[in-house]
Amino acid sequence: MKRRxxxxxxxxxxxxxxxxxxxxxxxxPEYDQLLTExxxxxxxxxxxxxxxIGEMYRKQFSDENSERKLIKHLSDYESTEITTITEVLRKxxxxxxxxxxxVMVDGWVLSRTEARQCALFSLTQTN
Amino acid sequence: MHIDARELENNSIIExxxxxxxxxxxxxxIALDWMDTPYKVILLEGGGFEYDDKVQELYAGKxxxxxYFPLKSARLxxxxxxxxxxxxxxAPFDPxxxxxxxxxxNSGWPISKTDLDPFYAKANKVLKLGPYNYEYxxxxxxxxxxxxxxxxxxVVWNKMWQFSQxxxxxxxxxxxxxxxxxxxxxxxxxxxxxxxxxISNVKEVIVKNYAGKxxxxxxxxFVMACGTIQNARILLAANSQxxxxxxNDNDLVGRYFQEHLEVASAELWLSKPFPTDxxxxxxxxxxxxxxxxxxxxVQTNEKMLNGTASLVPLSIAKYQKPRMETWQNSDPRKSLxxxxxxxxxxxxxxxxxxxxxxxxxxxxxRIEQAPNPxxxxxxxxxxxxxxxxxxxxxxxxTPLDKYSVRKIYQILGQQIGIAGIGRIRLNEFLRDENDDTxxxxxxxxxxxxxxxxxxxxxxxxxxxxxxxxxxxxNLFIAGASCYPxxxxxxxxxxxxxxxxxxxxxxKNKM
Lengths: 127, 510
Description:
The structure holds two protein chains of two kinds.
Chain A: H1 3-27, H2 47-60, H3 67-75, H4 85-99, E1 102-105, E2 108-111, H5 112-126
Antiparallel strand pairs in A: 1-2
Chain B: E1 2-4, E2 13-15, E3 18-21, H1 25-33, E4 41-44, H2 53-56, E5 61-65, E6 89-90, H3 113-126, H4 136-142, E7 156-163, H5 168-178, E8 182-186, E9 189-195, E10 202-208, E11 214-218, E12 221-224, H6 228-237, E13 261-270, E14 288-294, H7 296-302, E15 307-313, H8 314-317, H9 323-326, H10 332-350, E16 360-367, E17 376-383, E18 389-395, H11 399-419, E19 422-426, E20 443-444, E21 475-477, H12 492-509
Parallel strand pairs in B: 1-8, 2-11, 3-4, 3-12, 4-8, 5-18, 12-21
Antiparallel strand pairs in B: 6-7, 7-14, 9-10, 10-11, 13-16, 13-19, 13-20, 14-15, 15-16, 17-18
Helix pairs in contact in B: 1-5, 1-12, 3-12
Keywords (chain B): FAD, Flavoprotein, Oxidoreductase
Family (chain B): Belongs to the GMC oxidoreductase family.
Protein name (chain B): GMC family oxidoreductase
């Protein structure tokens, strides 16, 4: 391989890594850790089970299999007067059940929101 | 008065005003209702006062289709019938159970719950239950700590049960024997029914026993109260004058056999302890408790069958084997021992279960079976020792049954979620919506229903709304075989009420 071509390709490779790192570092928004903590489920399951259910959710809904997408979904709620993230999540979960926005993962009837929390938790475990 | 038919001279003639064939819950309830009347009542029992394996053997038969209990051990064949070992759970049918539902083929009774209400009240007394009141509000005032789950009562309601400990064999033996106008014949197995030439009136019933004796019973009215399988079997076997059997001009006798599907279906995991006695049952102690039931409105919207979910602590239930597995011995005493042994073992193992599972419950379905003409009792090739063809049972379930069981837990999953008290997990056999099958672990409740179903139209039912066999003026059927649909409640209270209604009708005819 000619030296010039090698430098060019190496440069492109470094750029690709850098861009990718930049993309994930700067395109994954900061988020509250509470988004990874399904409140009610944590009274039923241990962390291992939450992670396993999260993994199953990501396999079942592969289009959501990224931290960025899950955070986007979890943050996509109507603005209300509720101020704490815990209260917002509680309301979202109740709304999910009321609207039938549920998913079945490993037999569990879960609100879409809490299932996504499990999925996000599972990603933080593997990262 | 008691007469052992083995001791009678062979070919005796027995005569009375009314002949009740079968001394189980239905037959004894009717006999008691005729006590101290001016009428001579003949009450026929195939067995004696105690278990007799040779008599029990007369119930043996083959089963096909969905796995079922051995027929020999699915009922008890002696005075008192299956009350000899029943659990005693009683609740009336719900109003919807009597209605025609366009999503349930062959549903609809020719009578309503209102027609049965006065007889339910009487049945409660025969079964030694509390008052005829099955409202949650009533029992909440009577008993402590019946706090319900905070669920939307437009979707889920608390279906109340009372618990009978009545074992008719012990409870009513003395009363029946001492009743002057009741003539109880033990070891008198009905083997044939003879009619007049036009097959519109029963002339006599032939009874036999292992002593090799046969007798003839004559009466003005005959009531078959032998249980759902035996009622159909005897009608079908009474084919010497009409090849298809009595009451079977429209090929309906034996069809629509129904059971209650009793199957472990899901788990409920609570996020924190919920102290209540509403959903638990201690045999001999609990007076009333509840199961979670789906409202009529939701059943209609979802086009599902009527069913309930009961709660068993998961720490115990996870070690309990399906009853369909432990009740496979053809000797009912041994099967009962097997079940109790397994329950004891499960209770012992549960002591080691700690943590969140202590707030978890197995949800067991109890649901009606959709009426299905292919689910049926027929006559086998083989005959029993008294010369009657044995019963074959083909138990067949439908996609509507599976859909309805699954739907209960989808609904409960949503409602428990809304209430924020826990989460529901469906058992594996319910997770695939395209799977209509039931596993072999699916239990029945030993509740046999539907083989001589009630309908105003003879083309749709074997008996009319008064339990008279269509076309035969003095032949009546008592018991759960008359149910067109099987409801969500266990059958004994309703079959007692229906029998007492028939009894009242017959009294008015005398």
